[in-house]
Amino acid sequence: MQSSVDVLSYRDKRIMSVEQTELFRTPGQFIFKGVPFTYFVNRRVLESKEIVQCRQDDVFVVTYPKSGTTWTTEMVSLILNKGNDEANRVVNQLVRSPMVEMYVESIEKWKWLFCLVSFLKQLVPKFITNSVLSALPESREMSALNGLQHMETLPSPRLLKSHLPYKFFPDEALKKKCKIVYVARNPKDTAVSYYHFYKLSPGYGFADGTWDLFFDLFTHGRVDYGDWFDHVLEWWGHRNDDNVLFLKYEDIKKNPRDIVKTIANFLNVTLTENTIEKIVECCSFERMKANPAVNMDRMFKPNYTISPTERNSFMRKGVVGGWRKHFTVSQNTEFDSLYQERMVGSDLEFEW
Ligand code: PPS
Q: What is the pTM of this model?
Protein backbone atom coordinates (compact mmCIF):
# COMPACT_ATOMS: atom_id res chain seq x y z
CA MET A 1 0.00 0.00 0.00
CA GLN A 2 1.54 3.34 -1.06
CA SER A 3 1.37 6.29 1.33
CA SER A 4 0.21 9.67 0.01
CA VAL A 5 3.83 10.88 0.22
CA ASP A 6 4.96 8.06 -2.10
CA VAL A 7 2.12 8.82 -4.49
CA LEU A 8 2.99 12.49 -4.48
CA SER A 9 6.67 11.91 -5.08
CA TYR A 10 5.87 9.49 -7.89
CA ARG A 11 3.63 12.10 -9.56
CA ASP A 12 6.19 14.82 -8.95
CA LYS A 13 8.84 12.66 -10.50
CA ARG A 14 6.70 12.11 -13.61
CA ILE A 15 6.13 15.84 -13.95
CA MET A 16 9.80 16.60 -13.45
CA SER A 17 10.87 13.95 -15.90
CA VAL A 18 8.45 15.28 -18.54
CA GLU A 19 10.14 18.66 -18.20
CA GLN A 20 13.56 17.08 -18.43
CA THR A 21 12.72 15.09 -21.54
CA GLU A 22 11.45 18.23 -23.20
CA LEU A 23 14.94 19.64 -22.86
CA PHE A 24 16.69 16.86 -24.74
CA ARG A 25 16.44 16.34 -28.48
CA THR A 26 18.94 14.41 -30.59
CA PRO A 27 20.56 16.83 -33.06
CA GLY A 28 18.33 17.22 -36.10
CA GLN A 29 15.44 15.35 -34.46
CA PHE A 30 12.10 16.47 -35.86
CA ILE A 31 8.52 15.69 -34.92
CA PHE A 32 6.22 14.44 -37.66
CA LYS A 33 2.54 13.94 -36.78
CA GLY A 34 3.49 13.64 -33.13
CA VAL A 35 6.32 11.13 -33.64
CA PRO A 36 9.98 12.15 -33.13
CA PHE A 37 12.30 11.09 -35.94
CA THR A 38 16.05 11.13 -36.16
CA TYR A 39 18.08 13.35 -38.48
CA PHE A 40 18.63 10.48 -40.91
CA VAL A 41 14.96 9.86 -41.61
CA ASN A 42 13.76 11.07 -44.99
CA ARG A 43 10.86 13.47 -44.48
CA ARG A 44 9.63 12.79 -48.00
CA VAL A 45 8.92 9.17 -47.08
CA LEU A 46 6.82 10.34 -44.13
CA GLU A 47 5.05 13.09 -46.03
CA SER A 48 4.03 10.91 -48.94
CA LYS A 49 3.32 7.24 -48.44
CA GLU A 50 3.27 6.87 -52.25
CA ILE A 51 6.88 7.90 -52.78
CA VAL A 52 8.41 4.47 -52.11
CA GLN A 53 8.18 2.37 -55.26
CA CYS A 54 7.75 -1.24 -54.25
CA ARG A 55 7.97 -4.44 -56.22
CA GLN A 56 5.59 -7.29 -55.52
CA ASP A 57 8.40 -9.59 -54.42
CA ASP A 58 10.03 -7.09 -52.05
CA VAL A 59 10.54 -8.48 -48.56
CA PHE A 60 10.68 -6.14 -45.57
CA VAL A 61 12.11 -6.56 -42.09
CA VAL A 62 10.39 -4.03 -39.84
CA THR A 63 11.05 -3.29 -36.18
CA TYR A 64 11.03 -0.65 -33.52
CA PRO A 65 14.77 0.24 -33.20
CA LYS A 66 17.02 -2.16 -31.29
CA SER A 67 14.63 -5.09 -31.54
CA GLY A 68 16.74 -7.42 -33.69
CA THR A 69 16.62 -5.76 -37.14
CA THR A 70 20.17 -6.62 -38.13
CA TRP A 71 19.86 -10.19 -36.85
CA THR A 72 16.55 -10.91 -38.59
CA THR A 73 17.67 -9.21 -41.80
CA GLU A 74 20.69 -11.52 -41.87
CA MET A 75 18.46 -14.54 -41.32
CA VAL A 76 15.98 -13.56 -44.02
CA SER A 77 18.78 -12.74 -46.42
CA LEU A 78 20.36 -16.18 -45.95
CA ILE A 79 16.97 -17.85 -46.31
CA LEU A 80 16.34 -16.03 -49.60
CA ASN A 81 19.83 -17.06 -50.75
CA LYS A 82 19.22 -20.65 -49.62
CA GLY A 83 22.17 -20.52 -47.27
CA ASN A 84 24.71 -19.07 -49.71
CA ASP A 85 26.61 -16.71 -47.41
CA GLU A 86 29.13 -15.30 -49.87
CA ALA A 87 27.55 -11.85 -50.08
CA ASN A 88 26.79 -11.86 -46.36
CA ARG A 89 30.49 -12.11 -45.61
CA VAL A 90 31.73 -9.40 -47.94
CA VAL A 91 28.94 -6.92 -48.71
CA ASN A 92 27.80 -4.61 -45.94
CA GLN A 93 24.26 -5.45 -44.85
CA LEU A 94 23.13 -1.89 -45.48
CA VAL A 95 24.26 -2.20 -49.10
CA ARG A 96 22.39 -5.50 -49.55
CA SER A 97 19.37 -4.40 -47.52
CA PRO A 98 19.04 -0.65 -47.27
CA MET A 99 16.76 1.13 -44.87
CA VAL A 100 13.90 2.57 -46.88
CA GLU A 101 13.48 5.79 -44.93
CA MET A 102 17.18 6.53 -44.45
CA TYR A 103 18.58 9.69 -45.97
CA VAL A 104 21.80 11.23 -44.74
CA GLU A 105 21.91 14.56 -46.53
CA SER A 106 25.48 15.48 -45.64
CA ILE A 107 26.76 12.33 -47.37
CA GLU A 108 25.75 13.74 -50.75
CA LYS A 109 28.44 16.44 -50.34
CA TRP A 110 31.16 13.93 -49.59
CA LYS A 111 30.33 11.37 -52.27
CA TRP A 112 33.49 12.19 -54.25
CA LEU A 113 35.66 11.34 -51.22
CA PHE A 114 34.13 7.90 -50.79
CA CYS A 115 34.49 7.23 -54.53
CA LEU A 116 38.17 8.05 -54.11
CA VAL A 117 38.48 5.69 -51.13
CA SER A 118 36.86 2.87 -53.13
CA PHE A 119 39.19 3.55 -56.03
CA LEU A 120 42.29 3.55 -53.82
CA LYS A 121 41.21 0.33 -52.17
CA GLN A 122 41.26 -1.37 -55.53
CA LEU A 123 44.53 0.23 -56.50
CA VAL A 124 46.86 -0.17 -53.55
CA PRO A 125 48.40 -3.49 -52.46
CA LYS A 126 46.39 -5.62 -50.08
CA PHE A 127 48.62 -5.08 -47.05
CA ILE A 128 48.13 -1.31 -47.20
CA THR A 129 44.43 -1.71 -47.84
CA ASN A 130 44.06 -3.87 -44.79
CA SER A 131 45.97 -1.60 -42.47
CA VAL A 132 45.04 1.89 -43.57
CA LEU A 133 42.03 2.08 -45.81
CA SER A 134 39.93 -0.82 -44.69
CA ALA A 135 38.50 1.21 -41.82
CA LEU A 136 37.11 3.82 -44.22
CA PRO A 137 33.66 3.44 -45.72
CA GLU A 138 33.32 2.96 -49.45
CA SER A 139 31.06 4.71 -51.92
CA ARG A 140 28.63 1.76 -52.06
CA GLU A 141 28.18 1.94 -48.30
CA MET A 142 27.68 5.67 -48.49
CA SER A 143 25.17 5.49 -51.31
CA ALA A 144 23.18 2.99 -49.22
CA LEU A 145 22.62 5.82 -46.75
CA ASN A 146 20.19 7.24 -49.31
CA GLY A 147 17.71 4.38 -49.01
CA LEU A 148 15.19 5.40 -51.68
CA GLN A 149 17.82 5.89 -54.35
CA HIS A 150 19.86 2.86 -53.40
CA MET A 151 16.95 0.42 -53.35
CA GLU A 152 16.24 1.24 -57.01
CA THR A 153 19.61 -0.22 -57.95
CA LEU A 154 19.03 -3.62 -56.32
CA PRO A 155 17.93 -6.73 -58.20
CA SER A 156 14.73 -8.56 -57.20
CA PRO A 157 13.82 -9.96 -54.82
CA ARG A 158 14.93 -7.07 -52.66
CA LEU A 159 15.28 -7.33 -48.92
CA LEU A 160 14.60 -3.96 -47.31
CA LYS A 161 14.52 -2.85 -43.73
CA SER A 162 12.59 -0.17 -41.92
CA HIS A 163 11.68 1.12 -38.48
CA LEU A 164 8.60 2.93 -39.74
CA PRO A 165 5.43 2.82 -37.67
CA TYR A 166 2.57 1.16 -39.56
CA LYS A 167 0.82 4.48 -40.14
CA PHE A 168 3.80 5.74 -42.16
CA PHE A 169 4.56 2.52 -43.98
CA PRO A 170 4.70 2.73 -47.82
CA ASP A 171 1.26 2.33 -49.38
CA GLU A 172 2.56 0.28 -52.29
CA ALA A 173 4.08 -2.31 -49.99
CA LEU A 174 0.70 -2.81 -48.35
CA LYS A 175 -1.28 -2.74 -51.62
CA LYS A 176 1.07 -5.18 -53.35
CA LYS A 177 1.07 -7.33 -50.23
CA CYS A 178 4.85 -7.40 -50.00
CA LYS A 179 5.97 -9.84 -47.31
CA ILE A 180 6.77 -8.13 -44.03
CA VAL A 181 8.63 -9.77 -41.14
CA TYR A 182 7.99 -7.67 -38.03
CA VAL A 183 10.11 -8.27 -34.94
CA ALA A 184 9.29 -7.02 -31.44
CA ARG A 185 11.53 -7.22 -28.38
CA ASN A 186 10.54 -6.81 -24.75
CA PRO A 187 10.62 -3.06 -24.09
CA LYS A 188 12.97 -3.21 -21.11
CA ASP A 189 15.76 -4.84 -23.12
CA THR A 190 14.88 -2.63 -26.09
CA ALA A 191 15.27 0.47 -23.92
CA VAL A 192 18.66 -0.63 -22.59
CA SER A 193 19.93 -1.50 -26.06
CA TYR A 194 18.64 1.85 -27.37
CA TYR A 195 20.35 3.72 -24.52
CA HIS A 196 23.70 2.20 -25.48
CA PHE A 197 23.04 2.96 -29.13
CA TYR A 198 22.34 6.61 -28.27
CA LYS A 199 25.69 6.74 -26.49
CA LEU A 200 27.48 5.01 -29.35
CA SER A 201 26.06 7.06 -32.23
CA PRO A 202 28.23 10.09 -32.93
CA GLY A 203 25.27 12.01 -34.38
CA TYR A 204 23.12 11.68 -31.28
CA GLY A 205 25.06 13.95 -28.93
CA PHE A 206 24.32 11.60 -26.04
CA ALA A 207 27.81 10.35 -25.14
CA ASP A 208 27.42 11.95 -21.68
CA GLY A 209 23.73 11.13 -21.39
CA THR A 210 22.65 9.15 -18.34
CA TRP A 211 20.51 6.04 -18.15
CA ASP A 212 18.07 7.92 -15.91
CA LEU A 213 17.51 10.56 -18.58
CA PHE A 214 17.21 7.96 -21.30
CA PHE A 215 14.69 6.00 -19.22
CA ASP A 216 12.54 9.12 -18.99
CA LEU A 217 12.89 9.84 -22.71
CA PHE A 218 11.92 6.27 -23.55
CA THR A 219 8.94 6.07 -21.21
CA HIS A 220 7.63 9.38 -22.52
CA GLY A 221 7.98 8.27 -26.15
CA ARG A 222 10.51 11.01 -26.84
CA VAL A 223 13.18 8.87 -28.44
CA ASP A 224 13.62 8.60 -32.20
CA TYR A 225 10.75 6.67 -33.82
CA GLY A 226 8.63 7.52 -30.83
CA ASP A 227 6.68 5.47 -28.41
CA TRP A 228 7.46 1.75 -28.18
CA PHE A 229 3.86 0.87 -27.26
CA ASP A 230 2.36 2.76 -30.20
CA HIS A 231 4.79 1.15 -32.65
CA VAL A 232 4.49 -2.43 -31.46
CA LEU A 233 0.76 -2.43 -30.77
CA GLU A 234 -0.07 -0.91 -34.14
CA TRP A 235 1.91 -3.63 -35.95
CA TRP A 236 0.53 -6.27 -33.58
CA GLY A 237 -2.92 -5.24 -34.84
CA HIS A 238 -1.79 -6.44 -38.29
CA ARG A 239 -0.20 -9.70 -37.17
CA ASN A 240 -2.88 -11.74 -38.90
CA ASP A 241 -2.57 -9.98 -42.27
CA ASP A 242 -1.57 -12.55 -44.92
CA ASN A 243 1.62 -10.69 -45.74
CA VAL A 244 2.79 -10.11 -42.15
CA LEU A 245 4.81 -12.44 -39.95
CA PHE A 246 5.07 -11.16 -36.37
CA LEU A 247 8.08 -12.49 -34.46
CA LYS A 248 9.64 -11.86 -31.07
CA TYR A 249 13.36 -11.43 -30.37
CA GLU A 250 13.10 -13.69 -27.33
CA ASP A 251 11.65 -16.54 -29.45
CA ILE A 252 14.44 -16.21 -32.01
CA LYS A 253 16.94 -16.38 -29.19
CA LYS A 254 15.28 -19.43 -27.65
CA ASN A 255 14.87 -21.44 -30.81
CA PRO A 256 16.53 -19.95 -33.88
CA ARG A 257 16.10 -23.18 -35.81
CA ASP A 258 12.32 -23.09 -35.56
CA ILE A 259 12.27 -19.43 -36.48
CA VAL A 260 14.36 -20.05 -39.60
CA LYS A 261 11.80 -22.68 -40.62
CA THR A 262 8.89 -20.34 -39.85
CA ILE A 263 10.39 -17.52 -41.92
CA ALA A 264 11.25 -19.89 -44.78
CA ASN A 265 7.67 -21.19 -44.76
CA PHE A 266 6.32 -17.66 -44.80
CA LEU A 267 8.53 -16.80 -47.78
CA ASN A 268 7.76 -20.09 -49.56
CA VAL A 269 11.41 -21.12 -49.54
CA THR A 270 12.31 -24.79 -49.13
CA LEU A 271 15.48 -25.45 -47.14
CA THR A 272 17.34 -28.65 -46.33
CA GLU A 273 18.17 -29.46 -42.71
CA ASN A 274 21.84 -28.76 -43.43
CA THR A 275 21.04 -25.34 -44.83
CA ILE A 276 18.90 -24.51 -41.81
CA GLU A 277 21.80 -25.52 -39.59
CA LYS A 278 24.19 -23.34 -41.57
CA ILE A 279 21.88 -20.31 -41.39
CA VAL A 280 21.50 -20.67 -37.63
CA GLU A 281 25.27 -20.87 -37.29
CA CYS A 282 25.90 -17.83 -39.53
CA CYS A 283 23.38 -15.83 -37.49
CA SER A 284 24.77 -16.64 -34.06
CA PHE A 285 25.71 -13.56 -32.05
CA GLU A 286 29.40 -14.55 -32.04
CA ARG A 287 29.56 -15.07 -35.81
CA MET A 288 27.73 -11.84 -36.55
CA LYS A 289 29.86 -9.87 -34.11
CA ALA A 290 32.96 -11.11 -35.90
CA ASN A 291 31.58 -10.37 -39.37
CA PRO A 292 32.58 -6.86 -40.53
CA ALA A 293 29.78 -6.91 -43.11
CA VAL A 294 27.15 -6.93 -40.36
CA ASN A 295 28.73 -5.82 -37.09
CA MET A 296 28.52 -2.09 -38.03
CA ASP A 297 31.97 -1.45 -36.53
CA ARG A 298 32.87 0.83 -39.41
CA MET A 299 29.80 3.01 -38.89
CA PHE A 300 29.76 3.00 -35.08
CA LYS A 301 33.19 2.97 -33.58
CA PRO A 302 33.44 2.47 -29.82
CA ASN A 303 33.41 5.90 -28.20
CA TYR A 304 36.60 6.17 -26.15
CA THR A 305 35.39 9.24 -24.29
CA ILE A 306 32.92 6.92 -22.53
CA SER A 307 34.08 5.00 -19.47
CA PRO A 308 35.13 1.39 -20.27
CA THR A 309 32.19 -0.03 -18.28
CA GLU A 310 29.71 1.94 -20.40
CA ARG A 311 31.54 1.63 -23.72
CA ASN A 312 30.05 -0.72 -26.26
CA SER A 313 29.93 -1.71 -29.88
CA PHE A 314 26.79 -2.09 -32.01
CA MET A 315 26.80 -5.86 -31.44
CA ARG A 316 26.70 -5.38 -27.70
CA LYS A 317 25.36 -8.30 -25.64
CA GLY A 318 22.56 -9.92 -27.61
CA VAL A 319 20.81 -11.38 -24.58
CA VAL A 320 17.36 -11.50 -23.01
CA GLY A 321 17.01 -10.00 -19.52
CA GLY A 322 20.07 -7.71 -19.56
CA TRP A 323 17.75 -4.87 -18.44
CA ARG A 324 18.01 -6.17 -14.86
CA LYS A 325 21.49 -4.65 -14.62
CA HIS A 326 20.18 -1.20 -15.59
CA PHE A 327 16.70 -0.69 -14.19
CA THR A 328 16.55 0.50 -10.58
CA VAL A 329 13.81 -0.96 -8.40
CA SER A 330 11.73 2.19 -8.71
CA GLN A 331 12.27 2.41 -12.49
CA ASN A 332 11.10 -1.17 -12.74
CA THR A 333 7.97 -0.45 -10.69
CA GLU A 334 7.30 2.63 -12.78
CA PHE A 335 7.79 0.75 -16.01
CA ASP A 336 5.58 -2.14 -14.91
CA SER A 337 2.71 0.17 -14.12
CA LEU A 338 3.16 1.97 -17.45
CA TYR A 339 3.23 -1.42 -19.18
CA GLN A 340 0.00 -2.54 -17.48
CA GLU A 341 -1.66 0.70 -18.45
CA ARG A 342 -0.58 0.68 -22.09
CA MET A 343 -0.96 -3.02 -22.82
CA VAL A 344 -4.44 -3.29 -21.40
CA GLY A 345 -6.67 -5.32 -23.72
CA SER A 346 -3.70 -6.70 -25.70
CA ASP A 347 -2.83 -10.39 -25.74
CA LEU A 348 0.76 -9.66 -26.75
CA GLU A 349 3.12 -11.12 -24.18
CA PHE A 350 6.89 -11.09 -23.74
CA GLU A 351 9.59 -12.97 -21.95
CA TRP A 352 11.73 -10.83 -19.75
S1 PPS B 1 19.05 -1.13 -35.05
O2 PPS B 1 20.12 -0.10 -34.82
O3 PPS B 1 17.74 -0.61 -34.63
O4 PPS B 1 19.03 -1.63 -36.41
O5 PPS B 1 19.45 -2.31 -34.06
P6 PPS B 1 18.88 -3.80 -34.13
O7 PPS B 1 19.66 -4.57 -35.10
O8 PPS B 1 17.40 -3.77 -34.28
O9 PPS B 1 19.16 -4.32 -32.66
C10 PPS B 1 20.45 -4.41 -32.14
C11 PPS B 1 20.36 -5.40 -31.00
O12 PPS B 1 20.25 -6.73 -31.54
C13 PPS B 1 21.33 -7.51 -31.02
N14 PPS B 1 21.73 -8.54 -31.98
C15 PPS B 1 21.65 -9.85 -31.71
N16 PPS B 1 21.19 -10.53 -30.64
C17 PPS B 1 21.30 -11.88 -30.66
N18 PPS B 1 21.84 -12.58 -31.68
C19 PPS B 1 22.31 -11.94 -32.78
N20 PPS B 1 22.85 -12.64 -33.77
C21 PPS B 1 22.22 -10.52 -32.83
N22 PPS B 1 22.58 -9.58 -33.73
C23 PPS B 1 22.27 -8.38 -33.19
C24 PPS B 1 22.43 -6.48 -30.78
O25 PPS B 1 23.44 -7.00 -29.96
C26 PPS B 1 21.60 -5.38 -30.13
O27 PPS B 1 21.14 -5.74 -28.83
P28 PPS B 1 21.93 -5.40 -27.48
O29 PPS B 1 20.98 -5.76 -26.38
O30 PPS B 1 22.26 -3.96 -27.50
O31 PPS B 1 23.13 -6.30 -27.47
A: 0.88
Nearest-Å Rg of the Cα atoms of the chain is 21
> How far is CA 14 from each of CA 18, 213, 268, rounded to the nearest angstrom?
6, 12, 48
Residue at 193 is within a domain: yes
- CA end-to-end distance (rounded Å), the chain: 25
Give pLDDT tens digits for 178-195: 999 999 999 999 999 999
What is the whole-number distance in angstroms between the Cα of residue 5 and the centre of ligand 1?
40
List pLDDT tens digits, range 16-37: 555 665 667 888 889 999 999 9
Residue 126's H or E segment, with its range, is helix 126-128
- Cβ(288) to ligand 1 under 6 A? yes
Specify if 130 maps to a domain: no
Band of the pLDDT at 246, cuts 50, 70, 90? very high
> CA-CA distance, 342 to 344, in Å (whole number)?
6
For Cα atoms 283, 287, 290, give the angle at the middle one, nearest 5 degrees.
135
Q: Give the ligand 1 atom nearest the CA of 73.
A: 7
In this structure, is residue 140 part of a structural domain? Answer: no
CATH number, domain at 16?
Answer: 3.40.50.300
Distance between CA atoms of residues 301 and 315, nearest Å: 11
Has residue 333 been placed in a domain? yes
Check: CB of residue 27 under 8 Å from CB of residue 203: yes
pLDDT digits (tens, 9 = 90+) for 86-121: 888 989 999 999 999 999 876 666 566 655 666 666
The total number of structural domains in the chain stands at 1
Q: Is the CB of 326 under 6 A from ligand 1?
A: no
State the residue range of the domain holding 42: 4-67+162-268+298-343
| pLDDT value of residue 109 | 63
